[in-house]
Structure formats: C-alpha cells, structure tokens
Amino acid sequence: MAQLPRLRDLFRAWVGIGLQSFGGGATTLYLMRRVTVEEQHWLNDEEFALYWGIVQIAPGINLLGQTVLIGWRVAGVLGAIVALIGLLLPSIAITILITAAYATIRTQPLVVAALHGIIPATVGVGVILAIQMLNPPLVASSREGWGQLGVSVAVLVGAPLLLVLLNLPAIMVLWGAGICCAVGFWLLNRRGGAQ
Amino acid sequence: MNPWLLFWLLLKASLFSTSGTGNLPILHTDLIAQGWATDHNFAEALAIGQISPGPTGLWVISLAYLVDGVRGSLLALVAIAIPPFTALGVHAVYTRYGSHPAVQGFVRGLTLAVASMFFVVLTQIMYQSGIDIRSVAIVLGALGLTYTRKIPVPVILVGAAIVGMCLY
C-alpha cells in the first residue's frame, strides 16, 4: 500500500512537466531533469544520462521512453504507465484543442495568409533541427577516423538519394543506413583493434 | 478511411524509428501514398507540434487529427504510447552491449539517415506551398533566428504568421 502515495506523487510530478513544457523537446527534457533529479531525487544525474542514451536506440519518441524508464525506476511497470499518462494527458489535450481550433478557421483568408508565413518558417526551423541532429554523429565520426567519417558521409548522401531516385520505402532506407553503419563501424573497429 | 490501417501506419512509423521526428519520413511516404494527407497537412501539424506543450513528437497527434478528426488523434495517442515501453527491454540489453561498436554504429546510421531524409521532406513541403522571393526570405529569416537560439521557436512561428498576413 506504500505504493499508492508514490504513484500519486509520480502522477502529479509528470502532469506538471507535461503542462509546463511549452517550447518543444529541449524544454521538456530540462524540466524532466529538474523535477525528477533535483526536486524529487528519484534518480541521480548519471542514471538520467544513461537512460537518455538508452532511449536514443529504443523505438518511439525519446522523451516518452525517458518517462517510461524513470517511472519504472520509481514504481515498476505501473509507475511507468502512470508517469506516461501523467505526461501525455495535459499535453495531448492541449495539442488536440489547438488543432481543433485551427481546423475550424483554416479556410479563413487571414489564416491562409498567416500559413503562407508559418509554413516556410517551419521549414527554416526544420533545417536547423536537421543540422542539430547531424552535428553530433558527424563530429564523433570525424574524431574516430577517416573510415568512420567516410561511412557516415556515404549514409548521409546515400539515404535521401535512395529515397528519391529509387523510391524505396523510408523504413528500408532508415534500417539499411543503421545496418550499414553497424557493420562498417564494427569492421573498422576490429581492424583498428588489431593494429 | 480504414481506422485500423491508419493505426497500423502510425504504430509502424513509431516502432521503426526513434526520436520525436524520426517517424516523419516514414509517415510522409505512407500517408501521402494513401492519399490521406498532403504536404500542407504535414507542415500544419509540424507547426502546431512546435507551439503545443510536451515533446515535439506530439506533432503526430495533430497530423492524425487533420487526417481523421478526434478518432485519428486518439489512435495516434495509443500508437505513440506503446513503442516507448520497449525502452525497458533495451535497458536490459544496453547495460550489456551498449558500448559495442556495432550498436554505436547502428544508432549513428539511423540518426544520419533521418536527418538527411528530413531535407527531402522539407523540400517537398516547400515546393507544395509555393516557392517565391517572399517564402524564401521567410525560410532564411526563421533559419537565422532559430540558429541564434535567442528567440523561442513558438515566438518565431507567431512572428512568421504576422509576416504572412502582411505579405499575402
């Protein structure tokens, strides 16, 4: 029965994170660390960083994986479910409300004009997002050696070409890229280790 | 529209990708092939995802709403809530093999491919919405402002909306 207050705390904390995290992923992660590590002491900084590494590989939205792992750390599988519901409930409700409100006014001339401004801006923001994603793996590869950098650049250039020119399914290209890099890095590492 | 198929496409995209926007290239191919969503819908959903609270990955909820109303967004909610639980399994494996070069390589390959395929999707969105001097100027302006990190993204989007109202 000692579980119940724990679950209630967990739920309350994650609802708070879900409600306050306006401004995208970085804000959410920042709030998550502040609440779970600094305020509640559910886990330490090292564990938080380890979990963040794990959710980079796990399927699905990284921040939700992080939520599941922290909830699980505090109160098992039930804790994971409670934490996830807590985080999603307010943010999903607000997202649906914003979309619904938008859907009713999307044909108004003023809204159409506003969209002509928003869509290119989303593209501009997206370019920065893509560059921010590209930066850490490219920097790490160039540090490790020419071979690793070569494999990375080949995937970087090859993936969109395969998608557009050969019309391959996106999943196939994504996993193909992952497998190419896995094999490439493994072979390069073995050769490097043998020297 | 077949709700089961929509659910499966949403779940598949989330299961076979990582990060909040990793599912973008997969969903973009699948939903456009079905004729259920347009490039325009993707741009709208991405913008709403930036404005609303929580992970940026919730843009899918907005996209599913535009495609299939409240039912769609609830299907999307279930579809994005299931895959994160695989993190528990990955946790068990990762503590043993996480430092293996093949694992590191796989993650890196996935990230590089998602990011580079992003440029394809963005180009298509841009092409569909119409390319002229005004729209290119807005892209560059938003890009520059985001790069400086001084202004929050939702504020940039609101600014762009005002610019759009004045220019178009």
Helix-strand layout with pairing:
The complex is a heterodimer of chains A (195) and B (168).
Chain A: H1 3-20, H2 25-39, H3 45-57, H4 62-105, H5 109-144, H6 146-165, H7 170-194
Chain B: H1 3-15, H2 24-34, H3 39-51, H4 59-81, H5 86-97, H6 101-129, H7 133-148, H8 153-167
Helix pairs in contact in B: 1-2, 1-4, 3-4, 3-6, 7-8
List keywords for this structure.
heterodimer, A: 195 residues, mainly alpha, flat, B: 168 residues, globular
Account of the 3D structure:
The complex is a heterodimer of chains A (195) and B (168). Chain A has 195 residues and is mainly α. Chain A has helices at 3-20, 25-39, 45-57, 62-105, 109-144, 146-165, 170-194. The longest helix of chain A has 44 residues, at 62-105. Chain B folds into 2 domains: 3-126, no CATH class; 131-168. The longest helix of chain B is centred in the last third of the chain and has 29 residues, at 101-129. The two termini of chain B are 34 Å apart. The chains are: A mainly alpha (195), B mainly alpha (168). Chains A and B meet through helix 1, helix 3, helix 4, helix 5 and helix 6 of A and helix 1, helix 2, helix 3, helix 4 and helix 5 of B.
Question: What structural class do you assign from the helix and strand content of chain A?
Answer: mainly alpha
How many helices of chain A? The count is: 7
Q: In the residues of chain A, how many domains can be counted?
A: 2
Low-pLDDT runs of chain B: none
The total of beta strands of chain A comes to 0
Task: Quickly count the domains of chain B.
Answer: 2
Class based on secondary structure composition and strand pairing of chain B = mainly alpha
Quaternary assembly: heterodimer
**Radius of gyration of chain A, taken over Cα atoms and rounded to an integer in Å:** 21 Å
Q: Helix content range of the residues of chain A, please?
A: over 70%
Main β-sheet description of chain B: none
Rounded mean pLDDT of chain A is: 88
Strand content of chain A: under 5%
Q: Note the run of SSEs of chain B as H and E.
A: HHHHHHHH
Q: How many H/I helices of chain B?
A: 8
Distance between the termini of chain A: 59 Å
- Rounded to an integer in angstroms, the radius of gyration calculated over CA atoms of chain B is 18 Å
Largest interface: A-B, 101 and 107 residues
Strand content of chain B: under 5%
Helix content of chain B: over 70%
